[in-house]
Design brief:
By secondary structure, the chain is α/β, with parallel strands linked by helices. It has a domain of 198 residues: NAD(P)-binding Rossmann-like Domain (Rossmann fold, 3-Layer(aba) Sandwich), CATH 3.40.50. It has eleven helices and 16 strands. An eight-stranded parallel sheet has the order 3-2-1-4-5-6-13-16, sandwiched between helices. Helix 2 crosses helix 4. The longest helix is centred in the middle third of the chain and has 24 residues. It is globular and about 60 Å long.
């Protein structure tokens, strides 16, 4: 059995690959990249360059943008008539943005949601034709780091706190469910083993995935500050809470220059939680937040 891994050079992909190596699994791991120095050379936008490593059965796991991955597979199957008889399962990462940004007022977020939903449907439709399991995971607010790769959530918050002396937040901020990249790796690994055990069955599973702890945006900021070293500049940042209405009024000018940025700031007041907890899926005790200090 082969594991074909796409999107390895992303934060989640790198952490998952490291997790697989630590588990010392018996399966062969093959990863693909546009850079031939970082794996088997493949450009998802150019599916004609893809070929199977050998004639063994394989499972596809992707941390690449799901729209590229879905188009890649659909092209192989429908346009190139590529044989996928040996394919025994698909696990692909999408994003909770598919649902949380569906009704945003700015076109960027609405188009992102639409693109995610369309791509998910393409994968589930293909899996039904191939009669295989398809697991689509929608993680929310991924954080963590691996070597020089940092997340686009917590790291950005810390960067802002290190550069500003004062940050204003709404008094009643929305709820979040941050998930560490390692937690995501644990869930994908669990689903991979489950899928391989049930490789002769056909089912589509969509998981809106969050971390084990639900926190308000304000609680996230406080937890981060308390986890940092005493000399970290982020600890010196003063967090001032102001009424929600005043906060929303204060960020209105941002909408003129960047509707996308305004939407991101206004979502601080929104509850974006209630997703399945990683600990409940794999059956272990909840992990605290922040899970580790590797995001500094």
């Amino acid at each position: 059995m082969n594991i074909y891994l796409f999107g390895k050079t992303s934060l989640s992909g790198e952490v998952f690959y490291r997790y697989l190596k630590l588990k010392k699994i018996k399966y062969k791991i093959h990863y693909f990249s546009r850079d031939e120095k970082k794996g088997y050379k493949i450009d998802l936008k150019n599916p004609d360059s893809f070929s199977l490593i050998n004639k063994e059965e394989f499972i596809l796991i992707s941390f690449a943008p799901i729209w590229h991955f879905a188009d890649f597979l659909n092209y192989l199957f429908y346009q190139k008539n590529f044989s996928l008889k040996k394919l025994k399962g698909i696990i692909a990462c999408s994003s909770t943005s598919a649902i949380t940004k569906r009704f945003e007022f700015n076109n960027y977020d609405k188009n992102l949601s639409k693109k995610l939903l369309v791509s998910e449907r393409k994968l589930t439709s293909l899996s039904e034709k191939l009669n295989i399991n398809c697991q689509i995971i929608r993680p929310t607010m991924i954080y963590g780091s691996f070597k020089e790769i940092r997340d686009n959530n917590i790291s950005k918050i810390l960067s802002i706190m290190r550069h500003l002396k004062v940050v204003f937040l709404p008094s009643f901020s929305g709820l979040r469910q941050p998930i560490h990249a390692h937690q995501l790796a644990e869930v994908v690994y669990f689903l991979m083993l489950k899928s391989l055990k049930e490789k002769n069955s056909c089912s589509n599973n969509l998981i809106n995935l969050g971390g084990d702890i639900i926190l308000s945006y304000n609680e996230i900021i406080e937890s981060l500050k308390n986890s940092l070293g005493k000399n970290d500049d982020a600890r010196k940042c003063l967090i001032l809470k102001i009424p929600n209405r005043l906060f929303l009024i204060s960020i209105l000018p941002v909408m003129i220059f960047s509707p996308k940025s305004f939407a991101a700031l206004s979502r601080i007041c929104s509850n974006l939680s209630g997703f399945e907890k990683a600990c409940e899926i794999i059956g272990r005790n909840p992990r605290s937040f922040p899970f580790s200090k590797d995001f500094n």
